[in-house]
Specification:
CATH architecture of the largest domain: 3-Layer(aba) Sandwich
Number of strands: 18
Helix content: 25-40%
Structural class: alpha+beta
CATH topology of the largest domain: Beta-lactamase
Strand content: 15-25%
CATH class of the largest domain: Alpha Beta
CATH superfamily of the largest domain: DD-peptidase/beta-lactamase superfamily
Distance between the termini: 59 Å
Radius of gyration: 22 Å
Largest sheet: 8 strands, antiparallel
Mean pLDDT: 93
Number of domains: 2
Number of helices: 11
Order of helices and strands: HEHEEEEHEEHHHHHEEEHEEHEEEEEHE
């Protein structure tokens, strides 16, 4: 009982300290003059042919402070970029799937510490590839992989592209056989069939011992299906995107919307963008594909505006425009470092689906308490609760050899300046 009371006092004190810090923070406003620097930066990338086109969106206190499109959605077709262009968001899908998991946790249908094998039988006895002088050997996992491990990318599950496991993964249609590992839009099978095969392959670290980026959230997508009894696309559509008014967020594009999808480009060694091929490492099968594999880790398409609405819901503690998706404690779990220094020793952590900023300066000008991530096609986003900001940048560039994702947030932050002092008339 004493331990419970002590923990409660600690939480109350932490909330009070955070509130005091917010109250003492300078009242910063967005400078329209300084926002114009974003125009210059993004147009420069287009003019230099380092990206074909860009959409940038900035929300402050939930209101649009900046929303602009630059360049081309499809240069070869002569189609200009617009603010409602649809993008492949790849790993930005992970945050949405993680919300689906937390919704089921709140309903009592999942437990954060449940073993994955409760929902995917092949995960009952997982194995790990261990590198040695004589080559890799496969050993049993020391413990079961849990939903917590999957949410935090500490299950030891990679994308199967490293040399010690690549051939094994490729033989089962994963790793090198799936684009860069994460791509499943061309698979003519449900995601749970793919994840059942994954469970038979060796992983690359023991559960809980390392931060390894990989199929973790795709596994969670299957678990959502099995715990809820509905397909992942249906769950996300009916429980998250439709209630939030995210009308342009889908796993596969409605055929009548194909002219809204941005083309994918690729950075050459000279840094200039050229159209990517029509394959798993380029345009992908998001319009003409089998429409059977709903990849919770990398499968969604969306717009900057839609994704900003999702992020604003998280920033607001799980609610937006009267629609409650999660409770404040659940969103706090998602946006608080849950892995200590496994992800980084330089002030960045990882929560349940988001990278976290645990120290000011760890991610340039982002405030302590900020969180975000990005996608393989070059998209990036961040949420800064202290500055009351949601920042979204959408491009379609894979591989991306530019520094646009690093430069863009700093040009946003420089637009925050001290509010003018009000002088009373005498």
């Amino acid at each position: 009982m004493k331990r419970t009371v002590g923990a409660l006092i600690l939480v109350v004190c932490s909330v009070a300290i955070a509130a005091a810090q917010r109250a003492s923070a300078p009242d910063l406003v967005v400078s329209a003059e300084r926002l114009a620097r974003i125009d210059h930066l993004l147009q420069q990338y287009v003019d230099q042919n380092r990206v074909a086109g860009v959409v940038a969106l900035l929300l402050r206190d939930g209101q649009t402070a900046y929303e602009r499109a630059f360049g081309w959605a499809d240069k070869e077709a002569g189609r200009r970029m617009t603010t409602d262009t649809i993008f492949r968001i790849a790993s930005q899908t992970k945050a949405i799937t993680s919300v689906a998991v937390l919704m089921l946790v709140e309903e009592g249908k999942l437990g954060i510490n449940d073993p994955a094998s409760r929902y995917i039988p092949s995960f009952a006895k997982t194995t790990v590839s261990v590198r040695g002088e004589a080559g890799p050997t496969v050993v049993p996992a020391r413990r079961a992989i849990t939903i917590r491990d999957l949410l935090t990318h500490t299950a030891g599950i990679s994308y199967g592209t490293s040399s010690d496991v690549a051939l094994l993964y490729e033989a089962k249609g994963l790793g090198p056989a799936a684009g860069s590992g994460w791509y499943t839009a061309d698979k003519d099978e449900p995601i749970c069939d793919t994840m059942e095969r994954l469970g038979t392959l060796p992983f690359v670290a023991q559960p809980g011992e390392a931060w390894v980026y990989g199929y973790n959230t795709d596994v969670l997508g299957c678990i959502v299906e099995r715990a809820s009894g509905v397909a992942l696309d249906q769950f996300i559509r009916t429980r998250i995107t439709a209630p939030l008014g995210m009308k342009d967020t889908h796993f596969f594009l409605p055929p009548d919307q194909r002219n809204r999808l941005a083309a994918v480009y690729a950075s050459g060694m000279d840094g200039r963008a050229a159209r990517a091929p029509d394959d798993s490492k380029g345009q992908g099968s998001y319009v003409e594909g089998p429409r059977r594999s709903f990849a919770g880790g990398a499968g969604l398409l969306s717009t900057a505006r839609d994704y900003a609405r999702f992020l604003e819901m998280i920033r607001n503690g799980g609610i937006l425009d009267g629609v409650r998706v999660l409770s404040p404690p659940a969103t706090a779990l998602m946006t608080t470092n849950q892995v200590g220094t496994l992800h980084s020793t330089t002030g960045l952590g990882f929560g349940f689906g988001f990278e976290t900023v645990d120290r000011f300066g760890a991610k340039d000008m982002a405030s302590q308490g900020s969180f975000g991530w990005g996608g393989a096609y070059g998209t990036v986003y961040s949420v800064d609760p202290e500055a009351r900001l949601v920042i979204v940048l959408m491009i379609q560039l894979m591989p991306n050899r530019t520094d646009i994702r690093e430069r863009f947030p700093n040009v946003v932050y420089q637009a925050l300046v001290d509010a003018p002092v009000k002088i009373s008339a005498r």
